[in-house]
Specification:
about 65% helix; about 675 residues; six-stranded antiparallel beta sheet; alpha+beta; five-stranded mixed beta sheet; 12 helices; Rossmann fold
Length: about 675
């Protein structure tokens, strides 16, 4: 059981900040049309279920960026606070459902908008589909149904009204279950056809299996025959391999000896060439010795050869002495020039005295005589130096000739030594040539059978190839036979699995047939019968209740109301049926209210007493007598909390508490 205890609205339509405490019993929200009464009912439904049938974007007050509704309720004696917030997107300007949470003694639990509706339905124990885009059906027809919407239900076409009743009492589940059963039967029929299609290939598989079993025996016989041939062939190949090894060994031995023969023949040729080169070299060296001996004889050396070093020493001494004499000549020349200058000038350059004519003549004469003696000595030394140089050059030349002669003698000796050694080598070469000739003669006799050995080896190789080709062919046939056997055995295994599948398919066909028969012949008719039974029961209950409420609201014994099979209200006056549209405004409201209270009572019977009833302008068009009767009706309603919304002041008498809603300058508030 639910009770509404308090609602707080912030920037919700015409309300800026308003908190309303809602008591038990009957409370009247009284106010002029457009004062904001319906906004409170919309805010309650928004707090419980979010958007649903309400365009929540219209709830946010114009010009504001955010708002919220906080609803305090009591469910089965426990308190809960439901909070939902609206915010305007700064970029798009779109109103968005933002923060949502439910608070209780256990704490606060945040939710998305859809999750919170699911949580509320679970909390209120409303068993209905959790459609995020629709309000609660139980709430709509048990707690709060706008009067205009109830009139629409009454004026709807019969099939639309019947579908509405199915939704109210969650009877759609029967048609949904029937539709699902039909879909399931159709799907089962498709599956049955699939299995029947599988069984169509069974005769062909049986025929293929018989053919493969026959072929398998043929392949096995062929495999056995080929394996026997292969075994015999492998024995022949083994014998041929041994024959080949012996022939190959003999051929390789002869081939190696033939290679040795060629090697020795090449060595012999190399030695013959070496001998020829050696003979020619000896002849050249003999001629060279003769030429060197002739050149030696042409060089004549004196018996006595002066020592060049001693001559060079004497030459150095004379050159040094000549240098000293030249120095003395320079000094004498300077002194003579001084005396000649003083005599010519008549003045002494040192003391400045006057020099008379002929004063230095004796001195000059002696100096010039000394100069001549020195000069004569220098000339003699120059002649002696020249002679010594000639003797040195001759001694140097003679010594060079002696050295050349010695070199020629040494070369001749070296050549003679080489000739002697070469003649020894020549003897060795001749001996080696003789030995190689003997080896070649021996090997030539041994390799005479190489050609026949080569022919025999090629014949055996050809035989080996032929045998191996036959073996490869047989091995291919063996592989093919094994492959055919494996493939055939695999197919036979596959046929075995196929036969298992055919058995399973037959079982499935039988099972699907039984299920389809059950769904079509038993289950779907049972659903229709169950729905019809409930609809008949509901119709009977509604007839009893709606006629009771209508009789209280319209105390005219000539008029009565009944509900037909399509839940359409039928008005009878004096035994004649009347259309609802022909009634007065108050009578139409009485029909709508009677239908509304009947739905409330029956829904409560089916889902449990919700505990709260909200009636929005239920007495529109009522006469004063009807308004008085309405008080009696309210007292007969089994509801602990009733919220009346009306602009009728006469309803104050039937309310336990009255709250007036007023609106001033676009802002609503409660007095």
């Amino acid at each position: 059981m639910m009770k509404i205890k308090r609602i707080e609205m912030h920037n919700i339509r015409s309300y800026i900040n308003e908190a309303i405490e809602i008591p038990d019993g009957t409370m009247l929200l009284e106010g002029d049309i457009g004062s904001g009464k319906s906004t409170i009912l919309m805010a309650i439904e928004f707090a419980l279920f979010g958007g649903g049938d309400i365009d929540y974007s219209s709830l946010l007050r114009i010009g504001e960026d955010s708002g919220y509704v906080e609803l305090a309720i009591e469910v089965d004696g426990k308190d809960y606070t439901l909070y939902r917030e609206l915010k305007r997107n700064a970029k798009s300007g779109k109103i968005e459902h933002k923060t949502c949470h439910i608070s209780s003694t256990a704490g606060r639990t945040p939710y998305s908008a859809t999750e919170m509706k699911t949580a509320v339905l679970k909390l209120l124990k409303f068993r209905e589909p959790k459609n995020a885009r629709a309000s609660s059906v139980v709430y709509r027809y048990s707690v709060y149904t706008p009067q205009e919407e109830m009139r629409i239900i009454l004026e709807n076409k019969p099939d639309e009204r019947l579908n509405t009743m199915r939704k109210i009492f969650n009877l759609e589940k029967y048609s949904t279950a029937a539709d699902n059963a039909r879909t399931a039967a159709k799907n089962l029929g498709t599956k049955k056809e699939v299995q029947q299609d599988k069984l169509k290939e069974e005769p062909d598989i049986i025929k293929k299996k018989e053919e493969d079993e026959e072929n398998l025996n043929l392949y096995r016989m062929k495999l056995k025959d080929n394996e026997a041939k292969k075994e015999k062939l492998e024995s022949d190949i083994s014998d041929t391999d041994k024959e080949y090894e012996n022939a190959k060994k003999k051929y390789d031995d002869l081939k190696m000896k033939n290679n040795d023969l060629k090697t020795h023949q090449k060595l012999l040729l190399d030695k013959m060439k070496e001998k020829d080169d050696k003979v020619k070299s000896i002849e050249r060296r003999i001629n060279t010795v003769k030429e060197l001996q002739k050149q030696t004889q042409d060089i004549i050396i004196p018996e006595v050869i002066e020592n060049v070093d001693e001559l060079n020493s004497k030459i150095d001494d004379i050159i040094k002495e000549i240098g000293n004499i030249e120095h003395m000549k320079g000094e004498k020349t300077g002194i003579i020039k001084k005396y000649e200058d003083m005599t010519a000038n008549g003045i002494c350059p040192l003391c400045g005295r006057e020099v008379y004519q002929g004063e230095f003549e004796p001195k000059l004469k002696d100096l010039k005589k000394e100069y001549e003696e020195i000069n004569t000595k220098a000339s003699k030394l120059q002649d002696e130096l020249k002679e010594l140089k000639q003797r040195r050059d001759h001694a140097t030349k003679t010594r060079e000739m002696a050295r050349q002669r010695e070199d020629l003698l040494n070369k001749a000796k070296h050549e003679e030594e080489y000739i002697a050694e070469a003649q020894k080598d020549l003897a060795t070469i001749n001996k080696y040539i003789q030995e190689e000739n003997e080896i070649i003669n021996r090997l030539s006799g041994e390799v005479g059978g190489l050609e026949s050995a080569d022919k025999k080896l090629r014949d055996i190789e050809r035989k080996k190839r032929e045998l191996n080709d036959m073996k490869m062919k047989l091995e291919g046939e063996v592989r093919d036979a094994k492959a055919h056997i494996d493939e055939t055995e695999r197919r036979l295994e596959e046929y075995g699995r196929k036969f298992e599948e055919f058995g399973k398919a037959r079982q499935k066909v039988e099972r699907y047939s039984n299920l389809i028969s059950f769904l079509q012949d038993v289950f779907i008719p049972a659903l229709a019968e169950a729905e019809q039974s409930i609809m008949v029961s509901l119709n009977r209950e509604m007839n009893e209740l709606v006629s009771s409420w209508f009789a209280k609201l319209v105390p005219d014994p000539m008029k009565e109301i009944t509900i037909d099979d399509n839940f359409t209200p039928i008005i009878r006056q004096s035994g004649y049926d009347m259309d609802v549209s022909s009634l007065s405004g108050g009578e139409k409201s009485a029909v709508a209210l009677s239908y509304r209270l009947t739905l409330n009572a029956i829904v409560n019977n089916y889902v449990g007493n919700v505990g709260v009833l909200i009636l929005d302008e239920p007495t529109d068009g009522f006469s004063k007598e009807q308004l008085q009767k309405f008080g009696d009706v309210l007292r007969d309603i089994n509801s602990e909390q009733i919220i009346l919304v009306s602009h009728e002041a006469e309803l104050e008498n039937v309310a336990d508490r009255v709250m007036r809603v007023e609106k001033s300058e676009g802002v609503s508030h409660i007095d």
